[in-house]
Write a structure and sequence with these properties.
Layout lengths: L1 H17 L10 E6 L4 E8 L20 E4 L9 E8 L4 E8 L5 E7 L4 E6 L1
Parallel strand pairs: 1-6
Antiparallel strand pairs: 1-3, 2-4, 4-5, 6-7
Length: 122
C-alpha cells in the first residue's frame, strides 16, 4: 500500500511541477476565438518553415467565445512563428512571422462584410 501511495504522490507532484510557470516557454500564448464560427484546426510552425506542424487542438474544436492556451517547452529559442486556423467549413486564415516572445494573446475576429479573419495581438 505504501508504494502505491508514494507513486500517487510522485505522479501528483510531477503534474503540478510540469504546470508550473517555471517551465513556461517565452512563446506561450492564448488564442481567443471571437469569429462567430468554430475553429477545427490550429497549426503553429516556425516562421518560413513551408510546412505546418500537427494540429495543436488535436481532436478538440475551438468554438466561438472559447480560448486555448498554447504552451511551448522552456528550452524553445525560436520567437518567430506562423499560425494557421481552419474553420469547420474548410476555410483557412494564416498569419506569418508572429513574434511569440512578445505576444501573449491572439484574439481572432471575422469580418462578415470583407470575409477576412483578423488577429488582434496583445
Amino acid at each position: 500500500m505504501n508504494s502505491k501511495l508514494t507513486m500517487l504522490a510522485a505522479a501528483t507532484a510531477a503534474v503540478l511541477f510540469a504546470q508550473s510557470p517555471a517551465f513556461a516557454g517565452d512563446q506561450d500564448f492564448e488564442v481567443v476565438n471571437k469569429t462567430g464560427y468554430p475553429i477545427k484546426h490550429l497549426h503553429v510552425s516556425e516562421a518560413k518553415n513551408n510546412s505546418w506542424d500537427e494540429d495543436v487542438l488535436g481532436r478538440d474544436v475551438l468554438n466561438d467565445g472559447e480560448s486555448f492556451e498554447l504552451n511551448f517547452a522552456k528550452g524553445e529559442k525560436t520567437c518567430k512563428w506562423d499560425m494557421k486556423v481552419t474553420y469547420d467549413d474548410g476555410e483557412t486564415a494564416v498569419w506569418q512571422d508572429l513574434n511569440l516572445c512578445k505576444i501573449s494573446k491572439v484574439t481572432l475576429r471575422w469580418n462578415k462584410s470583407t470575409g477576412v479573419t483578423s488577429a488582434l495581438l496583445d
